[in-house]
Amino acid sequence: MIKPPSPLLILLLTVATYASVWNGKADTKWYKDSESEFTITTPEQLAGLAKLVNKGNDFKGKTIKLGANIMLNDTANWRNWEKKKPKNKWKPIGFEKYTYFGYIGHLTLSHTTDNYFSGTFDGNGFAVSGVYVSGNNAYVGLFGYVFVGAIKNLGVTASYVKGGSYVGGLVGFIDGQIINCYSKAFVKGSTMVGGLAGKIGISSSKNQIINSYSTGTVTGKKEVGGLVGDLFGDIINGYSTGTVTGEEEVGGLVGNLFGNITNSYSSSMVTGDSVIGGFVGTCYRGNITNSYSSGMVTGGSVVGGFVGHSGKESEIINSYYDKETSKQNYGIGEVEIIGKYIIKGKSTAEMKRKETYNGWDFDKVWGIDSMVNGGYPHLRTE
Fold first, then answer.
1. Interatomic CA distance for residues 115 and 53, integer angstroms
2. What is the pLDDT of residues 172-220, one digit of tens each?
3. What is the C-alpha separation between 129 and 71, in angstroms, rounded?
4. Mean pLDDT, the chain, as a whole number?
5. What does the pLDDT read at residue 202?
6. Is the pLDDT of residue 16 over 50?
7. How far apart are CA 335 and CA 307, in angstroms?
């Protein structure tokens, strides 16, 4: 007969299961310049990483791994943080100093005053909760600025992120890769605002978001997306849910697209003034393949059930939107030059049938089940 554990052992195991809340201090003792891989397990060590990066250590060629869940604030009332702030304010990992005429501008490769993260951050399947950032600064998120780096296997939950430009639940700006990551947060900003990332990509490196998603509330003015505000790169197997609100170039998944999206979807409710799409606000120069949107779309001008505005060098293939739930009769609100567009508006009932999706891979990529995702197609990577 197996003897049950003692009450003391049960207590110790229970305490070990839950992360301790950050004490507001930064611990950098774990870092040694001669080493290339580190595992951090406490909020203080994560704050130490932010301190090191923000003082100029870019961690190029180095890997940071999480060994436990991290809690930066008690998350019991995180949905009320817009009115009642928590104890600890987070300083994002990495920032960029360049401004002109008082406005934070688009990045260029000539900047020499940046303090960014260029390593690999591997969340190892753990999550960071209780992130609280509030103000009008640029480059805001758990990470502020990642340049030629990667973030993978990481979640951000129960968090409040508010800033100016380049604002995201996981990262404000990243030139590099996001793989197997998610954000469940309230995100608010002005320009380039996304549930997961504010902006991805500016250099010639490979910029990708793979197997990642965002849920929650995203609010901004221009280039606002449920997953990414401004994308210069690729999304493969991504999705967004929740609500997305902005003024111009607002999309359920991406606000402004300059790249490629494959096998992705959005069920976000999208609201804005002009250039509004259930999936993408502006498809400036991009390609969208095997994707769909199902959220309600509301806007003033240039509004589409799937894409608000499509540029002359764009292609949209084998993609769909729900005409009933979107309340939109047209898949694209405005096009510059008629190109290759295969966007089909379907009824809700049709959107929940496998036969509707011509050429989609329902063996390895997609699944469809009346008990999953409201009956709409879901990604098997979910």
1. 6
2. 999 999 999 999 999 999 999 999 999 999 875 689 999 999 999 999 9
3. 5
4. 91
5. 83
6. no
7. 10
Q: Which residue has the tokens 């203080």?
A: 44
Evaluate whether 227 touches 195 at the Cβ level (below 8 Å).
yes
**Sheet strands side by side (includes 165-168):** 165-168, 191-194, 222-225, 248-251, 274-277, 301-304
Residue 188 belongs to what domain range?
36-78+85-357
What is the predicted pLDDT for the residue at 97? 66
Q: How far is CA 370 from CA 149, 246, 347, 376, 378, in A?
A: 39, 32, 16, 8, 11
CATH code (residue 306):
2.160.20.110
The answer to whether 161 and 133 have CB atoms below 8 angstroms apart is yes
- Domains held by the chain: number: 1
- What's the rounded Cα separation, in Å, for the pair 196 and 31? 28
Is 173 inside a domain boundary? yes
Domain assignment of residue 5, yes or no: no
Cα dist. 232→51, 154, 258, 363 in Å?
A: 28, 22, 5, 30
Asked if residue 209 lies in contact with residue 184, where contact means CB atoms within 8 angstroms, the answer is no
Phi, psi of 251 (to 5 degrees): -140, 155
CA distance 244 to 239: 13
In a domain, 373, yes or no: no
Burial zone of 239 (CB within 10 Å; 0-12 exposed, 13-18 middle, 19+ buried): buried
> Cβ-count burial of 99 within 10 angstroms (0-12 exposed, 13-18 middle, 19+ buried)?
exposed
Does residue 372 form part of some domain? no
- Per-residue b or e along 305-327, where b marks 16 or more CB atoms closer than 10 Å to that residue's CB: bbbbbbbeebebebbbbbbbbbe
pLDDT at residue number 19: 64
